[in-house]
Amino acid sequence: MRNVTLHAFNWRYTEIIENLDAIRAAGYGAILIPPPLYSDPKGDQWWQRYQPKDYRVLLSHLGGKRDLENLLEACHSGSSRIQVYADLVINHMANEARADHLNFPGEAELERYKAEPALFAENRLYGDLNEGLFSPWDFNQAGEIEGHEWGDRGTVQSQNLSGLPDLKDSDWVLKQQYLMVKALVEMGFDGFRVDAIKHITEHMIDNLADAPAFHDRFWFGEVLTGSENDEKVFLEPFLRETWMSAYDFPLFQTIREAFGFGGSLRALANPQDQGNALPWNRAVTFVVNHDIPHNDGFRFWLLDPQDEHLAHAYILGRDGGVPLIYSDHNESKHDVDRDRWLDFYKRPDIVAMIAFHNAVQGELMHILYESDVLLVFRRGEQGMVAINKSGTEQRVDLSTWGLKNPGQYRELIQGQTMTLSGNQFSLSVPARSAQMWLLG
């Protein structure tokens, strides 16, 4: 089954439908859409989607409920089914400057519901829009997370994230979250990304992921970690307490170090065995996610563009995990990012890498050669990946054992061919390049 997931970051739902043929042709098996819960329809800033006003309404700058229904139908029909995952924001509600800022959606919105009944009836997900959803009693009101408190799990779960009102895991809040997800599942969503999940209690997570009605969906969380202490305090408990998948931040940090100055590609040979990657069946792997370009505190995590290319070859070539490919519309405020991820989803090298990934799924990974600057591994007899991070060409003599012999292989990124025969063959990998060889 195809499992590469396109993160259609800040794409309008109609735009996804318009580009669905290209998305299918590129080999994607799933699409992660931005948070669909009600946010300011006039708010074109991407972060508006992460500030929900009301669980009971599907309406934002990106479209409404009818657009989502059309998207689900289009993805689930056609030549191959594409899974659709919704980004869920359940830790908090919108940070709004109004007197009743802990009432949601608030008196002004309730009046708008009454003034525009057709609009909100069309976009209603569930519930009675004549009544409020949350009141001050539904929020922790424990203040902001500050300084050293970011390392304390209890504080991170109970206090506000950047001024965003933090929801309690009370019976009423849990009921509304359950009803919201139930309605999304009934619409046809195949899975969910849970935003800021390290800020959410185990009770709140289990209320959704452990519910029998939702258990067959694909669930994954953003457990953002950047240090060994973060992994101990947040990630390890998450893995023990839930069955959900998570962004593979340990692997991402290993990739950063391996491609960094003085780093070694040997670290990427078997990272899970060294505790530097999540288990293969619980990992959502990535090279770029939306927080890294847009949050000034994380921009130092960005790889050099060519290293980013090599890292994508690695996550799409290796065995394990669900690869997530980020593609945006130049939302970054930094000029240096201009066009870097625009239409990234269909860039020829990425499409070639996805073709390799889809062709070798299920084939075991075996290391053929490793050094500080060169990593070569095979996937069964079907394929072989070579990554050279150095500034000079690397040549290595390799055994044909485990590969098709004799066998004709085609390199998908550059288009060369190679015939293997005998006991050994010589592989030449140009400077700062990746190769993905596929049988046939």
Automatic annotation (TrEMBL):
Belongs to the glycosyl hydrolase 13 family. This is Alpha-amylase. One of its GO terms (molecular function) is cation binding. The keyword Zinc does not apply. It catalyses: Endohydrolysis of (1->4)-alpha-D-glucosidic linkages in polysaccharides containing three or more (1->4)-alpha-linked D-glucose units. Its EC number is 3.2.1.1. The lineage of its organism: Bacteria, Bacillati, Cyanobacteriota, Cyanophyceae, Leptolyngbyales. Transmembrane segments: none annotated. It comes from the Bacteria. The keyword Secreted does not apply. Keywords: Carbohydrate metabolism, Glycosidase, Hydrolase. InterPro entries: Alpha-amylase-like_C, Alpha_amylase, GH, GH13_cat_dom, Glyco_hydro_b. One of its GO terms (biological process) is carbohydrate metabolic process. It comes from Leptolyngbya boryana NIES-2135. It is an enzyme of class 3 (hydrolase). Residues 3-357 form the Glycosyl hydrolase family 13 catalytic domain.
